[in-house]
Amino acid sequence: MDSLQACDPLDCVADQSVVGLTKPSVFTSPPMPIYIEDTDAYGVKYNANYMRTYERAMHQAQLQEPSLAGFPPSPHWSIVQVGELKFKQAPTLGQEFLVKGEFCKDSQAWNMTMLSPDGATVYSTATNVKLQSMTNHVEQYDRLPSIDSSLPNSTFTIDTFTTFRDEFDPQLPRHLPLFTVLKLFERARTNWIGGPNALNRMKTEDGVVYVVTTMTDLKLLANDKVLSPGDCPVTVHTEFCSKKGGMVVDCMQTVSVLTKGGYNPIAQGKVTIMGLNSTIWRPTKKLPDWLLRKL
Prior knowledge:
35% strand, 11-stranded antiparallel sheet, disordered N terminus, globular, 295 residues, 11 strands, single chain
């Protein structure tokens, strides 16, 4: 979806049984700057940091306007699902942005947009954003469909990572937050290319970078195992399907923990990446031979 979903103002209020029909259902955050901690090696806002930005803006809105509709009664909530997160134009170090949010009664979810303070540039949109107060688990969601592994342009990888204290959220006793999930997804995609050194080589020697254009069906999945830092590794299963000569790659990604019964999925999402010329930042099919052999 190219822009924030339209919603009838009469419908953009929360259900009375949840948050009250008379409460406001929109917010606009104050302008915020892009700090160096927000950026990646390409000098733009890192894709996982958009999740953190949206959650911070929503938390700030709730603190400033406690009667705002669309939030669980408890302040101890987290984002557990995003239907679609689109990246339109990445802000750079020093630029400012603000976040606008709108809650829709029909879907019981938020639609948000990140844009420049003057409204002239839309950086990102996030639709069907759902929150949940964390008790023991989140509701069960349907799994993503798999890519046909018999296709000649598809590959499958499994990566294992250790989890650390700073990657956990105290509101999520049985889960990793989506912010951490997106970073794990990124590591798996980097390993598929050949690791951080290969990613750097692709940019500096070949003049190509892969950027995330869209994320869909991001969600946490029901999980009965309590997760603790370092007590068990997590795995990222990724199915890659390249299109347009490798310029576009769809990545079906799932984070799992290993239990006695096998791999237990705890989060999932589909990430679409696109190859860009690193000089002019335009889509390119001129990929290096060593990368084409992988694809």
